[in-house]
Specification:
homodimer, alpha+beta, four-stranded mixed sheet, 9 helices
């Protein structure tokens, strides 16, 4: 698309909405959506015995991505993955999403096309079509995504169900996204979107099948997604469940890349505090732990430790010393 | 609340979320909400035969409000009213909302409290409790609200159902909000939130009962809310329905306040292009027009003209001349 068409497109909100609608129109059958982009609101048929699951997430220039560093298709992929991750964390399946986009005039050409390309790819990957949204002009890129999902009534896995004695598990390897971010931050060259060290940072994949399976089999007593980092998120799960926890340093699945320069960038702190993992953290009662395999749906599942009575969240190091696990993950209010 | 407590509150995202949750906790029975603020996502039970109605709206500092001019409680009221208005425009009833809020540190004390007060008031007025959201820190106030509603399957009133011969109606008086905005823009004094000329600009009320009644009785063939201004919005309804329209200048219910200085501020252009009305624009087939009273649920209902074949949208002036009605309402991409 040439610059002239790009410029014309964004002189009118209706044209921009129509362009976004065409770019995101599902390339897969969308039986769930009665009415999508173009009216005042989207319509979704309800089914008795189901619950609607709703979540929304900011994805803001400067805070969550750097427009001159991150590929636009990664911004598109990740803004949806981030919001849908909250549905996966409850064991729900995605149904549709709403996109709120504020866009500077200068990015309404190629950048917008590539952004929508990444968003469409995530939408197809997650089987989650666009249902509507809102657009406006702004001097910075502002994104907010509302993810809408569904699960059978009563099957959603909350943060609050962990009991003393439950085993704590995590999917995948932790800190890979944070490792990728450090590579981006420390490199002066343009990002190579195909660099395997950046994959989890740029195009996180969600553990959709694992989450659904845990909900369907009623295996997890509590679950959440790791978005801020294990050290913060385990504390949140424990607080919601009014329990404590004890995990072992040596069990934590750290990144498998070569070390990065800088003393703060050791593998363990990346895994504990890095954030942006979108892996699943869940607990399972003692009588059902044997049902959790070490690998499922192409994802490693690692046992980290146990839920305990009381309030403390501890990490046991290689010498057997238990240290309080301080929540040092991502918190926008502590930057 | 003193400044010290305010400062402490926003040093931690979890504390801010808890504060918002307490401030917005419904003072009215909320049977619809299975799980609200505090987990990964909100849960809403589904009922067979119903449709979920979803809409989201930006409300941004500088674009939609001026933080040093508009009272914080008006910002809170209006960001929710604006989003719920899209549900009302389909004849749906509100069920809950999600709040995405990005906030500068300096506004996390009194401003936040008053903002949440206005939001809570609108939430109670619209019977629409908070179900969740997302918060982050930012140097400007950014708000995005997702409104979630419900209507019986197939009863939602779309923009696309108007037919040639249908009568066009509008609720309330148009241009009152735009008049209020002009008062705010032209006055150098601090805003008096009780100034009746500002009421519709600061605290718009929605035509919830009228919208539901039109949907329940299947009276309206098409409907939308007037958010950008009649001159733009009537064109959108006609485009969606693939029809034209002809309305009469002298029928348009203009504001009933004393004139404002400046040649662009005549009453008719305020009513046609002003925007922010959140009144309902709807069409009714000839055989059912007699069922529309002149006043209902304490709101005037005004006949404006007719839907016609073809594409043109015309306005007939006092001398009987039909002029094309140019869409000159609010469009963030044309500022």
């Amino acid at each position: 698309m040439n610059e002239r068409r790009s410029r014309r497109r964004e002189t009118n909100e209706a044209e921009l909405v129509a362009f976004i609608g065409r770019a995101l129109s599902p390339g897969f059958p969308s039986r769930t959506l009665a009415l999508g982009i173009g009216d005042d609101a989207a319509l979704l048929p309800q089914t008795s015995g189901q619950e609607t699951v709703l979540s929304c997430d900011w994805f803001l220039e400067g805070t969550h991505f750097l427009p001159n560093r991150h590929p636009p298709d990664s911004v598109g992929w990740k803004c949806l993955a981030r919001a849908v991750s909250d549905l996966v964390a409850m064991g729900a399946r995605p149904r549709c999403f709403l996109l709120s986009l504020a866009l500077p005039a200068r990015l309404s050409g190629k950048w917008l096309e590539r952004f929508l390309g990444g968003l469409k790819a995530a939408s197809e990957n997650l089987n989650c079509p666009a249902a509507g949204g809102d657009t406006t002009r702004r001097d910075e890129v502002l994104i907010n995504v509302t993810a809408v999902g569904e699960c059978p009534m009563g099957s959603a896995i909350l943060r609050s169900g962990a009991k003393p004695g439950d085993s704590i598990f995590v999917s995948g390897r932790l800190g890979q996204a944070a490792y990728g971010l450090r590579v981006v931050e420390t490199s002066k060259r343009a990002i190579n979107p195909r660099d395997p060290r950046l994959h989890r940072h740029l195009y996180p994949e969600l553990r959709l099948k694992l989450g659904s399976w845990l909900a369907r089999e009623r295996l997890a007593t509590a679950m959440m997604d790791l978005s801020d980092g294990l050290s913060s998120d385990l504390g949140k799960l424990c607080q919601a469940s009014r329990v404590g926890a004890r995990i072992e340093t040596e069990r934590i699945p750290t990144p498998r890349f070569s070390p990065l320069p800088g003393r703060d960038y050791d593998e363990l702190s990346l895994a504990l505090d890095g954030g942006d993992d979108y892996e699943l953290l869940f607990t399972v009662s003692p009588d059902r732990c044997h049902e959790i395999p070490r690998r499922l749906f192409n994802t490693a599942i690692t046992f980290l430790g146990h839920i305990r009575r009381g309030k403390g969240v501890f990490i046991v190091n290689g010498e057997g010393r238990a240290l309080p696990l301080a929540g040092s993950g991502w918190d926008p209010f502590r930057r």
